[in-house]
Structure formats: structure tokens, C-alpha cells
Specification:
191 residues, 2 domains, mainly alpha, flat, single chain
Length: 191
């Protein structure tokens, strides 16, 4: 046993085993040529049969506890199936009452929606009126704000000119000359 286990782990042995298995597969394919033709003639039934055979073989290969799990899996009811069962359990009368209730609710909703629409329209009209009044107010405020802004600009301009004049007295030289030109350009842009 140990020798075999050691052989399994040796890479050369592994390689040989792989080559042998590959050879067997290839030979098998060669031998199966006629069988494949027969399958094509018979159609899909042959494929089903082979699938069934494969399944059986796999079941035989699987250990006992795995087979048990498989059985359980086959008998287990899926979620969809359960929901179907639940639906069929509900009686006809109950379903009818549900339908009636939903119909009544729909009617009620329709009535309330009409009322709500009326109220919403009234509110919209009111809001429109308020908006128009507010916009008029805003325009008046804007005009007064514009006047105030103009006065402020005049005052600031005078202050600025005064400041610039004082600064010019303190500065002399080519560097200050460039700065003065920039300030003059900014001033003209503002005006």
C-alpha cells in the first residue's frame, strides 16, 4: 500500500498514468465510431439511454450517505410547488370574498382620487395666484434693491478712488506703475 501511495505522488508516475488514460480514451473513441452512427440514426432516444446509464453508474460509485442525500433531494418539494399547493388550499368562497373586497376598494380609491384631483386643482389655482402676487412684490423689491445697489457702487467708487490716490502718492517706480495701470483697467471695467 505504501509503495502505491508513494508512486501516486511521484510526478513521473502521475504523467505515465495520465498518458495511459488518454490512450484508452482515444482508443475508445475509435471503437465507438459505428455506435455513434447508430445513435444518429435512432435520434435522441439513444442519448437519453446513455444519460440514464451514466446516472446509474454514478449512483453506484457514490457512497451510501451521499445516495441518501440524493433521495431526499428528489422527494423535497420546491418553493414554487409549495406556493401552488397553498393557493389550491384556499377555498373558492374565500377567493370570491377577496375579489369582492378588492373591487370595493378599487371603487373607493376611484372616488377619492376624483376628490383629490379637484382639491389639487383648487390648490394649484390658489398657488398660481399667490405666485403672481409674489412675483410682483419681488419685482418691486428688485427695483428698490437696484437703486440701493447703484448708490452703494457710487459710494464705494468714491472711497476706492480716494484710497488709490493716497496709495499713488506713497508709491513711485516702474513696478508701482504697472500695478496702477492694472487698477485703472479694473476700475474702467467696473464702470
Amino acid at each position: 500500500m505504501r509503495d502505491r501511495a508513494q508512486q501516486r505522488n511521484i510526478p513521473e508516475c502521475r504523467r505515465e498514468r495520465k498518458q495511459e488514460s488518454g490512450r484508452e480514451e482515444r482508443e475508445g473513441e475509435r471503437g465507438r465510431g459505428r455506435e455513434g452512427e447508430k445513435k444518429r440514426e435512432r435520434g435522441g432516444e439513444a442519448n437519453k439511454e446513455t444519460d440514464q446509464r451514466k446516472k446509474e453508474r454514478n449512483k453506484r460509485k457514490r457512497p451510501e450517505w451521499e445516495r441518501e442525500i440524493g433521495k431526499r433531494r428528489e422527494t423535497r418539494v420546491g418553493k414554487r410547488e409549495k406556493s401552488k399547493q397553498r393557493k389550491t388550499r384556499v377555498g373558492k368562497r374565500e377567493r370570491q370574498t377577496k375579489r369582492d373586497q378588492s373591487g370595493k376598494e378599487r371603487e373607493r380609491k376611484r372616488e377619492t382620487s376624483v376628490e383629490q384631483e379637484r382639491e389639487a386643482n383648487n390648490e394649484m389655482d390658489q398657488r398660481q395666484g399667490e405666485r403672481e402676487w409674489e412675483s410682483g412684490e419681488r419685482e418691486r423689491e428688485r427695483e428698490s434693491a437696484g437703486e440701493r445697489q447703484a448708490k452703494r457702487v457710487e459710494r464705494d467708487g468714491a472711497r476706492h478712488a480716494k484710497r488709490v490716490g493716497e496709495r499713488d502718492k506713497q508709491r513711485d517706480g516702474p513696478e508701482w506703475e504697472i500695478e496702477r495701470e492694472k487698477e485703472r483697467e479694473e476700475q474702467t471695467k467696473r464702470d
